[in-house]
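Hey, can you fold this?
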Amino acid sequence: MIIREARAADAAEVSAFLRALVALGKRRLPADEDFVRDVYIGHADNIACSVAEDADGSLLGIQILLRATEGNPYGVEPGWGIIGTHVNPKAARRGVGRNLFVATRAAAEKAGLQKIEASIGAKSPDALAYYDSMGFETFAQDDAKVRKCFEVE
């Protein structure tokens, strides 16, 4: 598995596995190619948008790191990082998220971020467990979502 920066040409394949996550009830956000290209790969506040690629060239996952700005839709403190992680269901339990986070953490350090926030659906046990295993700590939650924070060193 290699980790590399996402390219606009990756949008179709990422969209396909995001649609699979929607079908499994593990995603509620849009999954179309335009969303992937505009909100993930080409977002104006991107610090990093990485994909995990298998030896055969297929994409195993994507991780996005944005710099939070005033009025961001997630309510994240301006200047913090905002992270999103999506793993192809065919690649679950293969270390995709862990490998992506190595690159994302390095990008956060290089960008001078002090904290990274993840907002996770309260009924998403796999995602909650993933962020716990990466060292994120819960600082707020309600019936709909759990907000976790990672201290960048």
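Oh, and this one too while you're at it.
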Amino acid sequence: MGKGKTVKHLIDKEWCKGCGICIHFCPKNVLEFNKQGKAKAARPEDCIACKLCELRCPDLAIQIIEEPGSRK
């Protein structure tokens, strides 16, 4: 991710059907299944905000928001 930016993953658990497409296409392995079989951002600090998960989700259940701010 760009210097001075943070990434927020908004995942609508009601819309997510747990198909795993977002997990499969993530180049940095940021996403994984939670205990309910839905997508979650397990390693958001590794996200490069490519938005492949957002673009590939057939149910529009994930949104990537880039926010200015310091990365820790």
